[in-house]
Amino acid sequence: MDPKRKTAARYALAAALALAAAAAMLRTLYTGLEIDEEYALSLGYRLVSGDRLFAQMWEPHQLSALTTAPLIALFRALTGGTTGVLLFVRGVMLAAKAGLGVWCYRSLRGALGRPAAYLAALGVFLFTPKWFLAPDYTSQQFHYTLAAFLCWYGYYAPGARQYRGLWRVAAGAVCACLSFLAYPQSVAAAPVLWLGMILLGRRGGEARVGPLPRGALAFAGGCAVCGGAFLLWVCAGMGFDLPALAARIGLVLHDPQYDFTAAQRLAVLAGQALTAAKFAFWPLLAALALWAVWLWRRRPEAPRAVEALLWLFTTCLSVRCAQYALADVGLDFRHLYLAAAVAGGCTFWLDRRCAQGGTARAVLFWLGWLPGLAAYLMILRSTLIGLSTTFMYLFWPAVCGAAALALRRPAASRGRGLALAVLGVFFLAAPLTMRLGLVQRTGWRAVPAGTALTRIETGPAKGIWADETAADMQQCLYEALAPYAGQKVLQAVGEQHGLGFLMADGTLEVAQASVISGTDSDPRFEQYYTDVPDKLPDVILYDDAEVRDMAAFHAWIEEHFAITGRCTVTHGTASLQVLVVDGWAGDAG
């Protein structure tokens, strides 16, 4: 083909991919509603409403409110309420993701080449750990990690600016601290990052202060300043009562949902490993068939042959995840990230002495792949979710591994084409298919794209198109809580409706220890009102379509609270009981 036509075809393909990605994310902006997204906003709302970390907020992921709270505060300052705030937060996040994608492309195009950097940028633009756009703790952990890496890459990457602008390391440290706060288990990456900066600085001849390179000291200093400022703010919220703060942190860390030992968690994961392996069986067979053909034609050395098999398996698994998601109408298929992270580790090892892209490879390994793996192992130990779902935390190591493959940039056009095909399938096949073909609904489930959706017309989710059940519940919450502006609300339900706390245009107050889970399963329920007596509820909600057995818990409420009024509010498929409370019943308090 004529070179001009080739160039035109490449630009046309790039434009088509960009348009498809933009369409997919715009669709995500306006459709779907998930319980974890509601949880993220309700945490930020608590902080904006005056609740303080550890004092009134007892949620295990409460630190992620540090990101959502400013967005909610900004929206309230602009509009005076919370109607439509979810769409605003999603829009801000989409703009931030677009900016990160452009930054990723501009940072990596020199080392990876424009096509590979473009695919990586589209990949990070399309990815969110739980598919929705609102920045919950998992989304914050990934996006702050990416921002931190891009800051550090600008400092350590080869070129005229290498080791210039120490502010980049400090800015990266701030982003890293926000990632650690959003998901504290990811702090396991910190010592790996510091070690990596020491090694990168020494190998590259970076100026030192004593025995340590400047970059490593800037990272440690930035983290120390951020940590000190955060602790000072938290202590102020607890009246500088350090014993009380320590006790409250211990109480939050022992949230009953997460009260299991490492051995118990390992046993659960072992039981789920076989299911994950079964899912990968057919992609493995397909990869072996392609690998056999490749071996017959290339006859590589054994280590390179293993690497080729791993990347072929990643490609086939990516296609399988996309196909199975549509067939099963589900979004929870992330096995490809584990495969890519492992394949990338193999590539890093085999290319460790390769001169081409050596510095960029070292940065990707020490500040990307390895700390990402360390964070994943800590998260794997502590999270409740199933094994295959945890693979979403491997996306960042997988991206670094894919970048390591792109660094090789073979001279032969056929080799470049194969590598780009692998990267294209990995970064785009599954996310584009799922975002364009499915709509998310509560419970990490999905419905086909052609399913009729209902537009939410009131409340914080106004402007969002959701399935009928979710839309009806939002309208029902709005109608049930509208008369109680300024009141304290307790949701005595199994699955919390987080946006319910933002009804009445942001005038309600949360009156429960945690907004993450069913209040029935939290044995600290009564202790909360003993420790924080000014949080006694004025209004209690029951969900008539309850998914758990709430009889015993509701009986306790009826016995111990003075119920002065009761009514039922229905809208479509949703039905809520509203109880008006006037303190403790008799002398029970």
From TrEMBL:
Keywords assigned: Membrane, Signal, Transmembrane, Transmembrane helix
Keyword Protease: no
Residue spans crossing the bilayer: 117-135, 141-158, 165-182, 188-205, 217-240, 279-296, 308-327, 362-379, 385-406, 418-438
The UniProt record lists the keyword Signal: yes
Cleaved signal peptide residues: 1-26
Protein name: Glycosyltransferase RgtA/B/C/D-like domain-containing protein
